[in-house]
Amino acid sequence: MRQHSGIGVLDKAMTVLRAVAEKPLNLGELCEQTGLPRATAHRLAVGLEVHRLLTRDADGSWRPGPALSELAASANDTLVEAAGSVLPRLREITGESVQLYRREGSVRVCVASVEPPTGLRDTVLVGARLPMTAGSGAKVLLAWADSATQRTLVPDASFSDRTLLEVRRRGWAQSAGEREPGVASVSAPVRDSSGNVVAAVSVSGPIDRMGRRPGARWAADLLAAADALHKRL
User: Fold this and answer.
1) Residue 161, number of CB atoms within 10 A of its CB
2) Which of 66, 166, 178, 188 might form a disulfide with 226, Cβ 3.0–4.6 angstroms?
3) What pTM was estimated for this model as a whole?
4) CB neighbours (10 Å) of residue 178?
């Protein structure tokens, strides 16, 4: 579910931005994606274009504009800054792809990612939006999510409430072939200074290398990386 500020025009503008962030959209597609009336969607998109938050292709489709990157470059994200120190070391230890995910409503977003220099890998780009219903990262984020979110997402998930209980008990999660065939992963929760789970750090790669129970091999290293991130927060 999207958060609402109570300021109607702002919430609608954010709905437009988020829709276009997923893929370029023309006016008809934008209306279909957001549920906004045609005149409202057009007015908001044109206004965002004036402020360079959106830009238009030659075929008239809107896509994210340069002002978004400019604003992001000036943002001070302590979690991402911490990841810059911790994730490369975890990649060196495991030899596999490493990601950091945040939950955003009913999806998880990759906010940091590092890849091994060679070999077959599980590439997840920064900004990628993945489901909260499959994969070890989803299990970790959902295990410590609020009960309303759990009730909404678990019925459609490839795992159960019992699985989430086990994740909370042992402090990490694993998966094999859930999110994508042939890919295994193991994840651990990252906590902020107040002890709240704010992210999941993950290692992923081919099942042939990681095995169907990757936690037996990498859980301790994931927990150490999660603790290192926690200390930097």
Assistant:
1) 14
2) 188
3) 0.68
4) 20
